[in-house]
Design goal:
The structure is a single chain. The protein is an alpha/beta fold. Helices cover 35% and strands 22% of the residues. It has twelve helices and 15 strands. Helix 3 links the parallel strand 3 and strand 4. Helix 1 crosses helix 3 and helix 1 crosses helix 12. It is elongated, with a radius of gyration of 22 Å.
């Protein structure tokens, strides 16, 4: 069978699946709160399982809760082509981040079933556990264990804000499988995702052909001062941990701006103690997120922030502790897989451009153990990790069309 531009997925069916999944773990204003290993995550997994089994796929679940659904190939010795992303969301997440890649993979299989298309290589649709890393840091936790970058026992001991452990919660919701994590071998992996940035929409491009991914450092900083009354403590006698955080926030911004155009940085998660309106903060714990596609730039930013943050703490009389909470080096995706994506875009006639992923994705870890590439579609105003995150149905359809063609070229159509 020759691949032609007439071969397309069912965009209406894909969209309906996205909207149905979005009913699980609804947010407060139209998005989703389906954080990893919550009851809502378990419910979303069961819905996805039912859809996959109805499509004739067989399920495997590993000890990190990663879900794998296989469509057999004609060659029993051929390694599978994997496709997927994640179903978990931010606490105030959108309906498409991650979910589009998982359900786009399912729609790909449904389309092959509709058209009775067979491939030499099996095709496996995957849902990776805890990509977001909000409840249990770091991000891409389960794909990191799969790729041998992170230790499973260490991952099981990760705690959320309430002291609940990853391993215990995985078992509680019933998705701790018995398959050894990382034991699967892959012919290739493709991940479809919304851009999470404004470039594609601003330039009127249908598709981003992802060539590289930014590296990142997450640094958790704890500043310790002295709780005291805001009204009766003289200004020169304060040890204000909140002031230290404010100055480090400005520092992170200045460092990122000094390394333009290929660097970003901000303060994300913050816990202030005792968090009372008339008490000077005695302790603040917060996360620094810095990213760059250049490893030298990334590490230079980290070193500068660590040194100057220590200086700020000393000047204000604060204790400081800096922990490395998450890290991965910049990624160059597999040239052959990237070519398959570019071939698909050109065959289908969609407008496109090369793009570097500003966010981390499971594909960034899997790229260490298998040939990997990503497909991106625009999102409205580049907004993501926000309940207002939105995409157009035609964007989702175009991304899934490209995914279909790239996977079929790699999995080798036989009929």
């Amino acid at each position: 069978m020759t691949l032609t531009g007439n071969l397309r997925i069912n965009g209406d069916r894909l969209w309906d699946s996205l909207m149905e999944m979005a009913k699980i773990g609804p947010g407060l204003r139209g998005g989703n709160n389906r954080q990893t290993l919550t009851d809502e995550d378990g419910e979303g997994r069961r819905l996805f399982q039912g859809w996959c089994e109805k499509a004739g796929l067989s399920m495997g679940v590993d000890t990190m809760g990663n879900m794998f659904f296989m469509r057999p190939g004609t060659d029993p010795d051929a390694l599978p082509v994997y496709v997927g992303s994640h179903l978990d969301t931010q606490p105030t997440g959108g309906k498409f981040d991650g979910v589009l890649g998982v359900l786009g993979g399912l729609e790909l299989v449904r389309t092959l079933n509709d058209l009775n298309i067979r491939t030499k290589h099996p095709i496996v649709v995957v849902n990776w556990t805890n990509e977001e890393g909000t409840r249990f840091a770091p991000a891409m936790l389960a794909s990191g264990v799969f790729a041998g970058v992170l230790d499973q026992d260490w991952a099981y001991q990760r705690e959320d804000a309430k002291g609940k452990k990853f391993g215990d919660e995985l078992e509680r919701i019933g998705w701790k499988g018995d398959e050894k994590v990382g034991g699967r071998k892959m012919h290739a992996l493709f991940e479809l995702h919304i851009e999470q940035g404004p470039i594609l929409e601003a330039e009127g491009k249908d598709i981003g052909v992802v060539t590289h991914g930014q590296g990142l450092w997450w640094l958790q900083i704890t500043l310790t001062g002295k709780e005291s009354h805001t009204g009766s403590t003289p200004m020169p006698m304060r040890k204000n941990a909140g002031l230290g955080m404010a100055r480090i926030t400005e520092l992170v911004h200045e460092v990122a701006m000094a390394h333009q155009p290929s660097a970003v940085g901000a303060i994300g998660h913050v816990d202030v103690y005792p968090n009372s309106r008339n008490v000077i903060p005695g302790k603040v714990v917060f996360t620094v997120d810095i990213r760059s596609p250049n490893i030298a730039t990334l590490n230079a930013m980290k070193a500068e922030i660590e040194a100057k943050a220590a200086g700020i703490a000393k000047e204000l009389g604060l204790g400081i502790e800096i922990e490395e909470e998450g890290h991965f080096d910049p990624v160059a995706f597999d040239a052959g897989c990237v070519t398959a994506v570019r071939n698909a875009v050109e065959r289908l006639g969609y407008s496109h451009r090369n793009i570097v992923s500003g966010a981390g994705h499971d594909a960034c870890w899997i790229n260490r153990v298998a040939p990997t590439a990503m497909v991106m579609c625009p999102c409205v105003d580049g907004l993501s990790h926000n309940e207002d995150e939105d995409i157009k149905k035609e964007w989702a359809t175009a991304g899934a069309d490209v995914l279909l063609h790239a996977v079929l070229e790699t999995a080798e159509v036989v009929s």
